[in-house]
Design brief:
The structure is a single chain. The chain is of the alpha/beta class and about 425 residues long. The protein is built from 12 helices and 21 strands. The strands form 5 sheets. Strands 5-4-6-7-8-9-10-15-14 form a 9-stranded mixed beta sheet, with helices on both faces. It has a 4-stranded mixed beta sheet with strand order 1-13-12-11. A hairpin with a 3-residue loop joins strand 8 and strand 9. Helix 8 packs across helix 9 and helix 11 runs antiparallel to helix 12. It is globular, with a radius of gyration of 22 Å.
């Protein structure tokens, strides 16, 4: 059986770099013709002159917050004009519109991303293959199928491998157990915490799911302790790192040494807040230029922190490895698989002027995220608890606990979101 997804995974590193740099100018030429926002970003830079990473560094980094702001402004302007087009929704960053885009998804903000009909659009088939999943298997997909693209990411990847998919989605754990027993899937895709809940529910019901032996996790950190827990329960799990803007960025292999980069992206690690590439091994912000012809983001700052690892993987794949997700370069935080932005905390506060300041604190262990909104006011406002909780759910799509504190209690350090979780 073939060990690797394709020959590119074991290519000579110098040949891989040459190939990427040869593909880059053509991709950018096409992007400037059909995506006006990319043409603006590349103003003064001739695509054919970009032949190295040093040349690429001449292009300014555009960060997630800037992309969101561009979309918000474009949509607002279009609303006033009385007509909203696809180019307004995507703020000129996409080369495809309605009809060419098979689906459109939403991320918190809200920010919208297209999905075209190209097979394995999000690039996760490579990660599924590294997790041991092969054709003619049933993949049980427990990522959400609405608003966010996670469900489609895994489904399109599984289809590219020749697998059948059951769209389990999230929630209803008892029904998930019954469906898994009826269908006997060999593989699971979703967050590790949800599969843990399903397996614990099966145990509580006095039953097991013996068919399930493989898993590809994303949306949450997957620590060695979690890996060991799943092995004890008969599941060999691997992780993949991706985003709604870019698709699959990097994935874990049987070597269990960092994450191997996707073959269709140019990944840089830069000093947070700048476009300056840091030395290998130093932690910085993950910046990506994707060769996706439909949504060609150039020097896109993800806001995620990571670092390049030295040497090659023992699994035989020769592409660069990164240490995985090491936190956020800004205060945007991922909670239960969803990003929460400082702007969303501000929106909650604006709805409740009785409070002068707010701070969102995330506590707990892996898979047991606890979101606590601290609100500062002149007195205790417990009578407002239900309305505040409703605002939190509506704006963040997550549930939270509240802590009411007196004026002057919250630290004056500029933090709106504080991550106190343990990642051990």
């Amino acid at each position: 059986m073939q060990k690797h997804y394709d020959q590119r995974e074991t290519a000579d590193p110098q040949e891989r770099e040459r190939s990427l740099m040869e593909r880059l100018p053509k991709a950018l030429r096409q992007a400037t013709l059909r995506a006006p926002a990319i043409a603006t970003q590349l103003q003064g830079v001739e695509p054919d002159a970009l032949r190295s990473r040093a040349d690429l560094a001449r292009i300014p980094v555009i960060r997630k917050s800037e992309l969101l702001q561009a979309q918000l402004e474009a949509r607002e302007k279009a609303k006033h004009a009385g007509k909203i087009r696809a180019e307004d929704v995507f703020a000129g960053f996409s080369t495809i519109g309605w009809g060419q885009a098979k689906r459109v998804f939403a991320s918190p903000g809200p920010m919208y991303e297209p999905e075209s009909a190209r097979p394995d659009y999000w690039g996760f088939a490579r990660a599924l293959y590294a997790a041991g999943i092969r054709d003619n298997e049933l993949v049980y997909n427990c990522f959400s199928y609405h608003f966010t693209p996670a469900g489609s990411m895994m489904e399109t990847a599984a289809h590219a491998l020749g697998c059948t998919v059951f769209p389990g989605g999230v929630g209803q754990t008892e029904q998930q157990v019954v469906a898994m027993q009826d269908l006997a899937p060999t593989a699971y895709t979703g967050t590790p915490s949800f599969l843990k809940i399903i397996l614990e529910k099966a145990q509580a019901m006095g039953t097991r799911i013996p068919s399930l032996s493989k898993a590809l996790f994303s949306g949450e950190a997957f620590t060695p302790s979690m890996q060991a827990w799943f092995v004890e329960h008969g599941v060999n799990g691997f992780q993949a790192y991706g985003s709604a803007d870019l698709g699959m960025i990097a994935y874990e292999t049987e070597a269990r040494e960092g994450l191997v980069l996707n073959e269709d992206m140019i990944v840089e690690i830069v000093r947070p807040g700048t476009g300056i590439v840091v030395p290998d091994g130093e932690v910085g912000e993950v910046v990506i230029t994707t060769l996706n012809p439909d949504y060609p983001l150039v020097r896109f700052g993800t806001g995620d922190l990571s670092a390049v690892m030295p040497g090659a993987s023992a699994c035989g794949r020769t592409n660069t490895r990164i240490r995985g997700w090491l936190g956020r370069a800004d205060q945007t935080t991922k909670i239960r698989g969803m990003f929460v932005h400082p702007a969303q905390v501000a929106q909650i506060l604006a709805r409740h002027p009785e409070f002068s300041r707010a701070r969102l604190v995330v506590r707990g262990k892996l898979g047991e995220d606890k979101m606590v909104l601290q609100l500062e006011g002149a007195e205790q406002f417990s009578s407002l608890e239900e309305s505040v909780l409703s605002s939190v759910r509506e704006i963040t799509k997550l549930r939270a606990e509240l802590e009411f504190v007196t004026v002057g209690t919250l630290p004056n350090d500029g933090k709106v979101i504080e991550d106190q979780r343990s990642y051990e």
